[in-house]
Structure formats: C-alpha cells, structure tokens
C-alpha cells in the first residue's frame, strides 16, 4: 500500500518534460548557463549578448551544438531577449509550462533537451506572428564567414 502511494506521489514527475536526465552535454557549461539550460532559469532581461546581434550565421545550442535558428529568423523585439520568428526544422521541442502562474510554452533543444526559453504566438510583431524568446546563454552564434 505504501509503495503504491509513493508511486502515485511521484507519477507526475515521470510525465513531466521538466526532468533532464543527467547528460554529459551540460558538463562544460558555466554555473549560470547550467542554471538556465538545466534548471530552466531565465537570464536577466537586457543582459544577453545576442539581443542586438544581427550578423549572418546560425545560432546553435550552447550545450550540444545542434543548429537551432538562422540569423534570417532574428528580429528586433525590444523584449529584452534575443527573438526569432522561425526555427530550424526539427531542432526545437515545445512543452506546456504553467510555472509562475502563467500559461506559456517552453522551448528546448530537440537533441539535448536543454532549456532555451519560451515561444509566443499571435503577438503580430512579425509576419510569421511568432516569437521564440531565447536566452543568450542557451545559444552560441556561428558566423557564415567561418
Ligand atoms: Zn542541445
């Protein structure tokens, strides 16, 4: 009886996307990057290095180097975080996120499951009507020139 109760108690955690299995992808990250990518934190608004970064290239996952966003997708949103109105096909996973009393959609790297940020639809900022709001600390820019 006790065992069943225990299973019931922990069952929601097994279902949740929120658990990242221990993975070597995150070993090289700084404590702050790990706080964001593994613990699903958020960098301070306006603090990210890629907010006003508009060079041509690709943004890859900081943890596993999976290509996530092309520079053509990036737009100036003034929201305090790098914003993209599209994603590289198959690169991103979405999960419902009800934390902090809000209903949001979390986005994660499809390869390593690291937390990237959230995605918002219907804001009418760009023609595609979608905003991937991404932590600079979750991504790494690779120039086309290289
Ligand atoms: Zn990744």
Write the layout of secondary structure elements.
Layout: H1 2-15, H2 31-37, E1 57-61, E2 67-70, E3 74-75, E4 83-84, E5 92-97, E6 104-109, E7 115-121, E8 130-134, E9 139-143
Antiparallel strand pairs: 1-2, 1-9, 3-4, 4-8, 5-6, 6-7, 7-8
The structure holds zinc ion.
Q: What would CATH call the class?
A: Mainly Beta
| Broad shape | globular
Q: For the record, what is the CATH homologous superfamily label?
A: Peptide methionine sulfoxide reductase
**Bound molecule types:** zinc ion
CATH level 3 topology: Metal Binding Protein, Guanine Nucleotide Exchange Factor, Chain A
Number of helices: 2
* Average predicted local confidence, pLDDT: 90
Major beta sheet, specifics? Answer: 6 strands, antiparallel
Task: Please tally the β strands and state the result.
Answer: 9
Helix content: 10-25%
How large is the radius of gyration?
16 Å
Lateral arrangement of strands in the main beta sheet:
3-4-8-7-6-5
How far is the first residue's CA from the last residue's CA? 61 Å
Q: In percent, how much strand structure appears in the residues?
A: 25-35%
Just name the CATH architecture: Beta Complex
